[in-house]
Amino acid sequence: MTRKIHTVLIVDDDRSFCQSLSLHLNSKKMKTLTAPTGSEGLTICSRNRIDIVLLDQKLPDGEGVDFCTPILSYNSRTKIILTTAYPNLEDAVKAIKVGSVDYLSKPFEMEVLDLVIDKSLKVAKSEQPELIETDRKRPAEEDDAILIGQRGGLAEVQRMADLAAANYAHVLITGETGTGKNLVAKAIHNKSLVKDQTMISTNCASLPDNLIEAELFGYEKGAFTGAVASTKGIFELADNGTLFLDEIGDLALHLQSKLLGVLDEKKVKKLGGQTFKKVNVRIIAATNAELEKAVQKRHFRSDLYYRLCVLAIHIPPLRERKEDIPDLCQYFINKLAPFFNPEIADSEIEKLMNYDWPGNVRELRNIIERSIILHKGTILRPSEFLNHNLFVVQDSPQKKTETPSGDGFLESIEHKKLLNLKEVEKKYIRHVLSKMSANHTKTAKILGISRSTLMRKIKGYGLNRTAGKK
């Protein structure tokens, strides 16, 4: 897949500053444009699709904040980062109110700029829901939704998926991370009566709380700063089709209530809107959390849980269906190296069968792909990569080894100790927080999650006392 080239506009009258930023951003494979004044920056925005605007607060023809609204009028998805050598709280608040996504004080480190730009691009991407268009003329895409290994532990999953495809009831898919919940959802849609309609997928954990509502229900022009045009939410976009809500357990309580209302009434109202629109959407939700326990702790609404769980499908972890490993290996080989056609010796399969796969099918695919890339000859040796992951703690009987932070994440014991995913996640979040000096923004960047999701996990794992306040 070709990587998208992002365009950054630098609006600043300091020529050397613009040149320095351009060189750095070009090295990051980004296209840069520059303008010495706000008016020239507006002209560029009117003629180009700009992803990021680095906007100086003090410009020859006015203050940067005064140009935010005109910039957004050309493209509401453009992300504006205000920069200034004279920071003050009043300007920062004003910048956010007029649509700026961040506020940087000069001089700043390029690493800080990279973090802010990366965060802004992720927000922009999250605002555009992933459309999974169903095209029956492209069987290669359907292969991604095939359930591999049906002779083993997936037989019941296949039966339930077929049952779900035969009706329009809501479905809740549970299972550990990496078990393939999204593939089961696609398989259900591809076999259903609405297979020719749109399937839309969104991850509830990847969006900041203040964006999820707009993502789900849409918004009217003027509903909030930067809402320059009426926009449909994913419920409207998925009308008469399928909506896949991944990581539903991370949805905030107040949004759970609104989601329940949509399921009961079958109609939505946009943010800032006055009227309701009828929608007919089949919900497939997925989570790696134990929702029953979340319901008991009142972290998840019981009425929403029962509304979603009309049909429940649990995908067992790979360690409980190791008989599927040979079929999965062959499937990944055929998919990843169709013209190379390498082989795996029976002795290698045996080693793979003796491994517990804490990363599940996703980990197996990763190891097969790595083995194909680094292979020598026609025989693959994926077992060589089994210990190159975060899920197995290596042994060292002579002494106990810790990370520099002393949090025991890589502590060694006499034999290999297998941790469950929650233990690994908790330890790793603590580890990264320590490495990042408790900076939540940098930690979320390293973990590949939103800051709001990180804060929920910190609270859920009781890491508040050691997580800091940054």
Descriptive notes:
The protein is α/β, with parallel strands linked by helices. The strands form 7 sheets. The chain has a 6-stranded mixed β-sheet. The chain has a 5-stranded parallel β-sheet with strand order 2-1-3-6-7, with helices on both faces. Strands 4-5 form a two-stranded antiparallel ribbon. The chain starts with 6 loop residues before the first strand and ends with a helix.
Present the secondary structure layout.
Blueprint: E1 7-11, H1 15-27, E2 31-35, H2 38-47, E3 52-56, E4 58-59, E5 62-63, H3 68-74, E6 79-84, H4 89-97, E7 100-105, H5 110-126, E8 130-132, H6 139-143, H7 155-165, E9 171-174, H8 181-191, E10 199-203, H9 209-217, E11 218-219, E12 231-232, H10 234-237, E13 242-246, H11 253-265, E14 267-268, E15 277-278, E16 282-287, H12 291-296, H13 302-308, E17 311-314, H14 325-336, E18 343-344, H15 346-353, H16 360-373, E19 379-380, E20 392-393, E21 417-418, H17 421-435, H18 440-447, H19 451-460, H20 464-467
Parallel strand pairs: 1-2, 1-3, 3-6, 6-7, 9-16, 9-17, 10-13, 13-16, 18-19
Antiparallel strand pairs: 4-5, 8-10, 11-12, 14-15, 20-21
Oligomeric state of this protein? single chain
Which overall shape is indicated by the principal axes computed on the Cα atoms?
A: globular
Q: Could you say how many structural domains there are in total? A: 4
The CATH top-level class label of the largest domain? Alpha Beta
Average pLDDT rating? 79
The secondary structure category is alpha/beta
Major beta sheet summary: 6 strands, mixed
CATH topology call of the largest domain: Rossmann fold
Rg, alpha carbons: 25 Å
Strand content: 15-25%
- CATH architecture verdict of the largest domain: 3-Layer(aba) Sandwich
Classified in CATH, the superfamily of the largest domain is P-loop containing nucleotide triphosphate hydrolases
Distance between the termini: 36 Å
